[in-house]
Automatic annotation (TrEMBL):
<feature type="compositionally biased region" description="Polar residues">
    <location>
        <begin position="175"/>
        <end position="188"/>
    </location>
</feature>
<keyword id="KW-0175">Coiled coil</keyword>
<feature type="coiled-coil region">
    <location>
        <begin position="65"/>
        <end position="113"/>
    </location>
</feature>
<protein>
    <submittedName>
        <fullName>ATPase</fullName>
    </submittedName>
</protein>
<feature type="region of interest" description="Disordered">
    <location>
        <begin position="175"/>
        <end position="202"/>
    </location>
</feature>
<feature type="compositionally biased region" description="Acidic residues">
    <location>
        <begin position="192"/>
        <end position="202"/>
    </location>
</feature>
Amino acid sequence: MSSRIEQIIEEIEEYVDSCKFQPLSSTKIVVNKEELEELLRELRMKTPDEIKRYQKIISNKDAILADAQTKADALIADATEKQQQMVEENEIMREARQQSQQLLDQSRQQAQQILDSATEDANNIRMSAISYTDDMLANLEQIMSHASDTVSAKYNTFINSIQSCYDIVTKNRSELSPQSQNTSNYSTEDLAAADEEDQNEE
């Protein structure tokens, strides 16, 4: 972000560029004295404030650099101390790494055992489900077979009953009308075959 002094200088430059040249001259220009003096007056007023601001920034910069240097020195000293401790504790670190590796190996073995056990349980559950489903299907198959046999037997009984009734009716008609005997000597099988033939033709 530019300071006010830089802005005023830019305004003066823009003002000078906008002024017209004097007649018969390519270097001298005609300026508005009051407008130019106003810009210069503001420039003189802002200069001390800007100088103070820059001095404060410089002072803050030095303080920031000094603080950063202090922190850097502290970090270096701390790193040096930790390095010395690590050298002294090298044997402890080696043992710690060994224990860590042993713990990791044990964890891997336990994880594999858990995985193997879960796989075995899953296979057992799967086989049990297959066996249960097969038993259910076998039971259903037996029920359907029994139902089919029962229905077939009842159907045959029904057909035989119909045939018997039909024969009685036919006999009674022939006794009432001897002349229509020739057209009435059809069994239920003949009628059923004729009906099926009609349905096929349709």
